[in-house]
Design a protein that fits this description.
two-stranded antiparallel sheet, TPR_rpt, TPR repeat, TPR-like_helical_dom_sf, Tetratricopeptide repeat (TPR)-like superfamily protein
Length: 300
């Protein structure tokens, strides 16, 4: 039985339409639709120059992170934080860095030498010479606040009793800059508080050769052990920063050995050198803060 559905018929079964005279009338093919023409001229759509993409992206970020005003004010807070630390105001320094992060969250991931790392600094300042963690230096800043850790401020963690965080920071830094002698030494100082001198030496973070003779000798002292008096005496007649650095690191070595008296003697001497008292170097400021945190007077 034939189906009544046209979908099942063969093409031959379709008959063309006929006109009144019997002529076959073939259907004319449909013309394609004419494109719509707007009465308005087309809008110009030039490509966006690459030089405009970065400012545009920065503008979007400023909008999402608090605006350009906050981003512009954050570096000022960082600068004030650095100045306050150099003046011995550790609490004020940390407060300014906290403020910088609030103004511009990108400061939280700020780096020195292109490393991105942050450290939690708890409230109490720790004196490595004792087994307790007294709150000294009046560092009453909020517990567990995050601080941008530019290289100049990484050593702050040493003065807080979170040596594990400090050591991790120094190791991350050396992974990015494998020739940083001072990062290696400060990692040792932090881990000596955690594992003892022998344990820290077994984990010693080796770096490349320092171009400064005084730092080469200091590195060898911490890495292999030895006599810190020899380090100090080898540069006792040196000018510039060598005498300062020799005295500072001799004192820090004694501190790792829990010898408070000799540590004090050398670090106070470092502060009193011309370089320690007038250079404006961050490490000179750190030596002064170090003494303040231990109530060591620089007078006399």
């Amino acid at each position: 039985m034939a189906s009544s559905s046209s979908f099942l018929r063969s093409p031959a079964s379709f008959q063309p339409a006929t006109g009144a005279c019997g002529h076959v009338r073939w259907a004319q093919p449909l013309a394609p639709p004419k494109p719509h023409r707007s009465p308005l001229p087309p809008a110009a759509t030039p490509g966006v120059p690459r030089r405009l993409l970065l400012p545009a992206a920065a503008g979007i970020w400023d909008f999402l992170s608090g605006g350009a005003a906050g981003a512009a004010a954050a570096p000022l807070a960082v600068r004030r934080g650095m100045q306050l630390f150099q003046q011995g105001d550790v609490a004020g320094s940390v407060a300014e860095f906290d403020r910088a992060i609030e103004l511009d969250p990108r400061q939280k991931a700020c780096t020195s030498l292109a490393e991105g790392a942050v450290a939690v600094l708890p409230r109490q300042v720790h004196n490595p010479m004792s087994n307790q963690a007294p709150d000294i230096c009046n560092c009453n800043y909020p517990t567990h606040r995050w601080v941008s850790v530019f290289f100049h401020f990484r050593t702050l963690a040493y003065y807080i009793y979170r040596f594990e965080d400090a050591a991790e920071q120094f190791r991350l830094d050396v992974a990015a800059n494998p020739n940083d002698t001072e990062e290696s030494i400060w990692c040792f100082l932090s881990e000596a508080q955690l594992y003892g001198v022998d344990g820290a030496r077994n984990r010693f973070l080796e770096v490349g050769l320092d171009r400064r003779p005084v730092m080469r000798e200091a590195y060898a002292l911490f890495k292999d052990g030895g006599d810190p008096e020899k380090l100090a005496s080898n540069f006792s007649s040196s000018s510039g920063g060598e005498l300062f650095y020799a005295s500072l690191y001799a004192g820090l070595y004694y501190e790792s050995q829990k010898d408070a008296d000799l540590a004090k003697s050398h670090i106070v001497a470092a502060c009193k050198t011309p370089y320690g008292s007038r250079s404006g170097d961050y490490m000179a400021s750190l030596a002064v803060v170090h003494c303040q945190c231990r109530n060591w007077t620089l007078e006399g």
